[in-house]
Design a protein that fits this description.
This protein is mainly beta and 375 residues long. Helix content is 9%, strand content 50%. It is a single-pass type I membrane protein.
């Protein structure tokens, strides 16, 4: 038995790029008896399947041990051809996602959770609210005793202390540098070689504020993109990152390309709100003349919002007018130029010092012979 409300946040691709849609479990959602089951001992476990709309199904699969039962796995099947929920979807596929949950209770007790409980399943987040769930019932009604979820308590009896200052998480190693290529009908429109690290500030469930660093692992990341006459995009996705979108634009007045926008939609598991989103389309970074490439060996930090920035390592990028899948003439970043000035200045100072010592030595040698004649 189950009684709850549910909200869904789903990321999907449209003809204009990735987007998010939010919708609720409708009042006419119903248990699909043909697929739900009370289970059979030692052969199958109980499952509750709730159907709604055009082929959408939310499934709760239960398991138990001697003292407790739990929703071992939650699954969601959704139909992208349902235009009411997924307008302008570029695909008409039926997608399936699933994830383990923290829904558990003692045997012969109902699970009770008034607070929001979020379950993240790849690019879908399901939020249960005011939930009462029980499996392996002794009779046909909820038990009077209950097991409360962690999100509901315990509640403090006194006013909570003021939140501490943000504490940074341990710094991970520098991310791996990877080469990305975006091509369209007219060939390659973006070449990028770089290592990426996301700097995210968020509130944890205990209301402490922390800063987390998340390195992009190219081996677990898929890359897509699009080529337009005035906009080029690179979209990176992984199990945690639903979408990290880089947007490159051009300035026809100066004949330059630049990074003009970054969008992020990712999951931060230990955050109070695990779905983290940020967007800024007014950036001006990684700038070079169209036909040339921008290169910087030094680490660059691009501030997207107050809570989100991107650390970029050893970047080499070129947008628009990429000839033969090769980088064009290099325009060095200011950080690299400044770093070159230091050894030049030090070398010049050392050379000047050597010259002064040599001159002083020669003058001293000449004076040491004054007033003497050769015999």
């Amino acid at each position: 038995m189950a009684n709850f409300s549910a909200a869904f946040v789903t990321s999907y691709d449209t003809r204009n790029g990735p987007t998010n849609v939010t919708f609720d479990l409708p009042p006419d959602a119903a248990v699909l008896n043909s697929s739900s089951s009370c289970g059979k001992e030692n052969t199958s476990a109980p499952s509750l399947v709730i159907a709604f709309g055009r082929g959408h199904r939310l499934t709760l699969n239960f398991t138990r041990n001697a003292t407790r039962y739990s929703v071992q796995l939650m699954g969601f099947i959704y139909n992208l051809s349902d235009t009411q929920i997924f307008p302008n979807a570029s695909s008409k596929e039926i997608k399936t996602v699933e994830s383990a949950t923290d829904i558990r209770a003692d045997i012969n007790k109902k699970y009770r959770c008034v607070s929001n409980n979020q379950i993240h399943m790849h690019n879908v987040t399901v939020t249960l609210h005011d939930a009462t769930i029980q499996a392996y019932l002794a009779n046909s009604s909820f038990s009077k005793e209950e097991t409360r979820c962690e999100q509901d308590g315990p509640f403090p009896t006194t006013a909570p202390p003021p939140p501490p200052r943000p504490s940074p998480s341990p710094t991970p190693e520098s991310p791996s540098v990877h080469k990305y290529n975006v091509s369209g009908a007219n060939g390659t429109c973006l070449l990028a070689s770089m290592g990426l690290q996301l700097n995210v500030t968020y509130s944890k469930r205990d209301n402490t504020t922390v800063s987390g660093l998340f390195s992009i692992d190219p081996s677990n990341t898929s890359a897509t993109g699009s080529c337009g006459p005035q906009l080029v995009t690179l979209d990176l996705r992984s199990s945690r990152i639903h979408s990290l979108l880089f947007q490159f634009g051009m300035d026809p007045n100066t004949s330059q390309f630049f990074l003009q926008g970054i969008q992020l939609n990712m999951t931060v598991p230990d955050a109070r709100d695990p779905t983290f989103q940020a967007d800024n389309s007014s950036l001006r970074a990684l700038q070079a003349t169209i036909g040339n490439s921008y290169k910087c060996n030094a680490e660059e930090r691009v501030e997207v919002t107050e809570a989100f920035s991107v650390n970029i390592f050893k970047v080499w990028v070129q947008a628009f007018q990429v000839q033969g899948d090769k980088f064009g003439s290099v325009e060095e970043c200011q950080l690299d130029e400044n770093s070159m000035l230091i050894p030049i200045a030090v070398g010049g100072a050392l050379a000047g010092l050597v010259l002064i010592v040599l001159i002083a030595y020669l003058i001293g040698r000449k004076r040491s012979h004054a007033g003497y004649q050769t015999i």
